[in-house]
Design a protein that fits this description.
By secondary structure, the protein is of the alpha/beta class. It has a single domain (about 5-55, about 75-205, about 215-295), classed as Alpha-Beta Barrel (TIM Barrel), CATH 3.20.20.70. It contains eight helices and 16 strands. Strand 1 (about 5-10) and strand 2 form a beta hairpin. The longest helix has 15 residues, at about 275-285. Bound molecules: succinic acid.
Length: about 300
Amino acid sequence: MNPLAVQLNRLSLANPILVASGTFGYAKEMTAFVDFKQLGGIVPKTVTPQPRAGNPPPRTVETASGLLNSIGLDNDGFDQFMADKLPYLAGLGTSVIVNIAAKTCDEFKRMADVLNAAKGVAAVELNISCPNVSGGVDFATNPDLAADVVRTVCSAGDLPVIAKLTPNVTSVIPIAQAVADAGADAVSLINTFQGMAIDWKKRQPVLGNVLGGLSGPAIKPLALRIVWQVAQAVKIPIIGVGGIQCLDDVMEFIVAGASAVQIGTANFYNPGLANSLVTELLQVVQEQQVASFTELIGTLKIPVRD
Ligand code: SIN
């Protein structure tokens, strides 16, 4: 038995350590640094129906313990992805979770139809939460819209569906409940927090798009809070994302209720991190004397006070 194997409804993973969309390119860039076969899975950069040039520069700025980005879903488009990127990704010996974004349910459905017929795709992650695009529908800020996308993509075939949700709402719980009811296999919690950087001497925003999405260790406590809250409210598995940079961070998400995690911003300064985490998680399983790491999921104890 593989003590790191995990089942996210219809998605089977060899281990719970994934790399997050937008922080790992389309994997080729990481060849020199990462043993792909050891990863639980790769989530490549978001793909949209048509190519997108993305937002004006500057697109990134480092903040205290964080990274603010406003990439704007820059990508070569779905057809190019299927022709040039998926064949390479599919040969890497790990699960490939294709991340897609679109402006309408029909567009999501067209891509989902193709992905369901393709070889080498383990699951689809729906980016319904990018804070950096305008003119589209902000699906994950509305439970009904989020559920519509999930229902539509689920109707395209048997490919497992993961909804990546935004923290930029009053509560993620009703959105998570809605996508669970609509058939999502899992939720990724969370995408970036909308933020801003200012060069006060110039009286100007730093980012070309003015606003951006904050990731990195600065958001870990916020992400943990949301994972824990959603874990109390929904039954589908949660993939925790937000500021993970060491094994203790991974374990905090697991104990809070995540069944898997995605390593994001840390890939930029430590691309080998996800590999090390797999090895270290195996050691934790031994130290904790459990047969599988899954026994540790959601084991947080809240002290009862008189
Ligand atoms: C971007 O491309 O702007 C970032 C992607 C995201 O936050 O979903």
